[in-house]
Amino acid sequence: VKPVGGANTRDMPSTARIGAQDLLSGRFQGQTVRAIGRLVHIDSGHVHLQLAGEGPNAIVDSSSSGLFTHDGVNKDFFEVIGSLQAENVISPMQCVHLGDKFDLDLYAEMMALSHQFGEVF
């Protein structure tokens, strides 16, 4: 798995793992977040990721990355680290392709534990 983006992993700030419910709450707006989701749509310069849980899709500015392809729609998973802006937009610092086999339900359980026991994660 090769990350795409200009930032070095060691230079990344601490990040909260977010799901679709976190987009609804607005709790992490303006913060650096880590989102994992399935690629569900590509349009002019943006991709839509379905995150774990029920709620809206995250919208990622993809203009600087050739990582997202139409062949991956509805099957490929990605991790995006970036700043969560208004209207569920993530300005990415780093994007990682996770392949097409990822269990979002299991990830949602891990994410809930990471919120509950942040010092462990």
TrEMBL record:
UniProt entry tagged with the keyword Ubl conjugation: no
Entry's Gene Ontology BP terms: DNA recombination; DNA repair; DNA replication
Localisation per UniProt entry: Nucleus
InterPro entries: NA-bd_OB-fold, Rfa2
GO cellular component terms listed in the entry, alphabetical order: nuclear lumen
Recorded GO MF terms: DNA binding
Transmembrane segments: none
Superkingdom of source: Eukaryota
Keywords linked to the UniProt accession: Nucleus
Gene3D superfamilies xref list: Nucleic acid-binding proteins
Family of the protein in this entry: Belongs to the replication factor A protein 3 family.
The protein's name in its UniProt record: Uncharacterized protein
Species of origin: Calcidiscus leptoporus
